[in-house]
Fold each of these.
Amino acid sequence: MRVQSDTTQEEFVGLTFIHRLCADPTAPLIVLVHGRAGSAQVMWAFERTLPERAHVVSFQAFLPDVLGGFSWWDMASDQPLEPAIMVARDRFHFALERYIELFSLQPSKLVAAGFSQGSVMLSAVMLTGVVRFDGLGILAGFVSNVGEGRLIQGRPDIFVAHGTSDEVLSVEKARKGVERLRSYGLNVNYVEEDGVGHKLGIQGMRALKEWMSRVAGFVSPP
């Protein structure tokens, strides 16, 4: 059952969140991160792709957006983007550690998936080595220019899904990110869907579900 964070929890963790916990504290933890002008609620649109025996938490960004909802950095700002990404990275990192502490979790796997702006932030988290992910999903997003391969902790399995008709973030950005991650020796599962805009289509959702089950440890790799 999904539960909304309360004020006391949000003060401790530093971000608003909606989560679903298992009885087993060692179950895999899946972290969801929304894109620009989103909320902790919107990423639950992917719930049917998530293993039932995993903990799941969706964090909400901290900046109110002029478009409504919340964002990880101000897209209208004329300031350099990299420092803003680093601030978002640090807020996320702090929240993740505090969340795990608050609920006394000992996750056997740590998997994260971000949509659009959220995927950019998560890729910066991975590329700067502040969190060791077992799997990272980049959904209708791209790989941040921040950080580099030698800083990545472990060898996370990567999932990338992008539509060829994405009107917000071009598919070329996704392709370049895939090339970059593969150049670091990472396994990248890339799904490109013809005619799909800034979302995941049927093929992407199906592939995401299969990837989630495998990388969380519920299905053995082929």
Amino acid sequence: MRPYYNDGSRDKPKLRVFLNLDNLIDLRSDSVWPGDEGLDRYQRLAVDGFEGVQITNDSEPENGAPIPYCGLDRISTPGEADSIVAKHAARGDLGLTVHAGSGIEEEEDVFRLVEAILKASEKHRLPVFIETHRATITQDVWRTVRITREFPEVLFNGDFSHYYCGQELVYGDWEAKMAFMEPIFSRIGFLHGRIASPGSMQVPIGEDFSARPEQAHGIVDYLTHFKDLWVRAMLGFLRSAGAGDVLIFAPELLAGTYYYARLFPDASGRLVEESDRYAQALLYQQLARDCFTEAKRLS
């Protein structure tokens, strides 16, 4: 059994939709998010269907929060792994996603870093999911698959926007690439919800999940591709998870500050984000549940 987050129940493996709290930073002025802070924020998220939150690097959990939380951090060197994982275990995180390394390490350095993360996860009894992210040791699918061969027990946080855009997954044989990525899909314990196009890291979707998004004006339908990616990852989880295991899906739609949300001039020439990222997160919530239903059907 792999060290997924486990809720201690005898339930069948399940999906829980959290929200990465950076999703709420610098939203458009017309966002459907009411701007709640403190405990009111958590309560509103629960009302809106989110089952937990992912607390980012600069934040701490609210005392008395009515929904659970997990963490996010960076581990750059093997020597950092134990103290960082210990910190998140001590504050009560359900699990931790990490950016690991810089992506320019030699292979033996990559393996030392992964080994240190796995040891810290086991020592502190905290599930740690290495994120598939640009400028880290998992920035390309070849090296990430290589990691799975050396460490079959490793678990990932799948943020596939970095592969879809950064490695332009649609350039070439899609099915061949999906088959090659199977060792990654089978080790997903967490998913960051972000949809990319081949040329942009973060693009909006519409309410009809069966329709090609209006913004998908090019030659590919990125929504169909991401549904495929997520179903494959969820299916990989279902095939190896056991009683009480939980797959967390957390929309992480970031502001233009980080060059994720695209900005366009409005009628007055003021640059505004092309979509309401909280409204998009609500759509992702339903889309993730639909994908999990499909994965269960296929399993």
Amino acid sequence: MCEKILVVDDEKEIADLVTLYLQGEGFHVFCFYEAEAALECVERETPDLAVLDVMLPGVSGFELCRRIRESHRFPVIMLTAKGEEADKIRGLTLGADDYVTKPFLPLELVARVKAQLRRYKRYDAIGREDARIVCGGLVLDETDHTCFLNERPLALTPTEFSILCILCKNRGKVVSAEELFHQVWGEAYYDRRSNTVTSHIRNLREKMGDSFENPRYIRTVWGCGYKIED
């Protein structure tokens, strides 16, 4: 059964081109040019991944992402204008897993879609006994992609879950932002000016009720990276 991809962009030429490339890779694509119809599709079809343009008429891509995150955990990739760093940070804060800057090569977007799906789907192949990670009050299960903190469920995006898994598996050790980027996004090039990892760490702390000044879980080791103590 082929994976279902939601594509939403008000620039018809871009939406249709992305759809064409994704269909060429065997994906079943739902293509829309505005958010309301896309939201109806999300509830009706439950796609495996969404590609959302930031600038949409009426309901913006940001608001669409926020509504999706109210009840769904599948990966979301945002399409942002070139140089709009604030858009990238806002999208990640609202629960997006990745972003692609316009103009982009369609094959680059296809590669990112496949990378996100691999990370999101691979937990199904892991044995349940080996997939359970316990770290203090944190319990993560890579099989069903669930996370509990002191028996309280945390609604994490696939990217947030991956980052937390890496930190927990390396408990007591410092993991650099660059290493997290390479492991989670699977890309060779890391831009130290990017706020991608920082934004996801901030989201995790907020969901965990952690503070930046006096963290109980995720600690920042200045100039080095992040770590979780057992």
Amino acid sequence: MEKNIEKQLELILQGTQDVLLLDELKELIRKSIDTNKPLTVKLGLDPTAPDIHLGHTVVLNKLRQFQDLGHKAVLIIGDYTARIGDPSGRSALRPSLSSEKINSNAETYMQQAFKILDSSKTDVVRNSNWLEKLEFSEVLNITSRFTIARMLEREDFKNRFAGNLPITIMELLYPLMQAFDSVSIKSDVELGGTDQLFNLLMGRELQKEYKQKPQIAITMPILVGTDGVQKMSKSLGNYIGVNEDPKNIFGKVMSIPDSIMIDYFRLVTRLPEKEIKKIKDDLADDKINPSIIKRKLALTIVENLYNKNEADNSEKNFNKLFRDKSIPDEIESYSIKKNNFSENKIKLVQLLTDSRLCSSNSESRRVIEQGGVKYDNEKVTDINKEISLDDIDSKIIQKGKRAFIRIKVIQ
């Protein structure tokens, strides 16, 4: 364990939005060092979707920093709370998920989370272990300690109430269930995004009711997406997926505005604050080209998620595409069974969709019309273009600047 309290605080506070309460955190760290007993640091994740993006890794990186300092990381898989779904930021009730879907999502969540966390130093627990066993009398005991007025202090509930939108009793129970997670593991610190502050404080309040020392709540900023404006989100298309091909990750990082590079260094890498500050100062003083810094950021992110070799290969691929203007060496193949096509030809729109270069026929048509598709290195703008299967084998289709497939025809 790191024995210097100031060094611990410097790393813990790096990039944080709120720390409640800082004096208590200092005292906790001091006692932890004196007794050589690590703090129990909690992060809860509800597996409501199969994949995570860099925005989700902000709190994972903070948890990893606690691990590096020698503290105990507890990753709570909210398989029980996912049945409700966190109402944070929601204007309507979340759709319910089946147990099978939740379990499937949980598996992929853990696999992706361990790209950031040290799996050998992480306790993974499911909150169904204790929430399923709660007797109704205990639920009544918990709910008796909080008022409706207290719940309506929460911004999303308050807005829905003011707008005469329904709020279910089940949703009101969600913060209490998450709070009971803190009681169950006796957490010293809980991490979350800024939208989780109410839930984290409820955990602190419930711990007091159970005569436990209340946890410290630490929130992290919401990561801006690749557009540099809005919150990173799959629905907005401005996200970088943790499980994406490393070459795509590198390319997407290189596309972000210069103005958000420092935020990315602080929130999705584990570079020391002194190094980040030097980068910021050098940029401000025009001592270094922003593109060089962005390459360092892209290399660091890919190496953190994969390894140095993948990071180096991704940079070489990027150079070929954008600096050398050539086609990359490694291109994913897409196979077509010739026997499935009676007329021995295929529409380019269908090919883009079937190969998943585009998500739908409408997107395929839009990208073609906008001049974003090349077939055999020639730009195509005709949405009705058909290609003979006799001529298509080994040909390359390019969408945008980074997406390629090589066609393989199977008899």
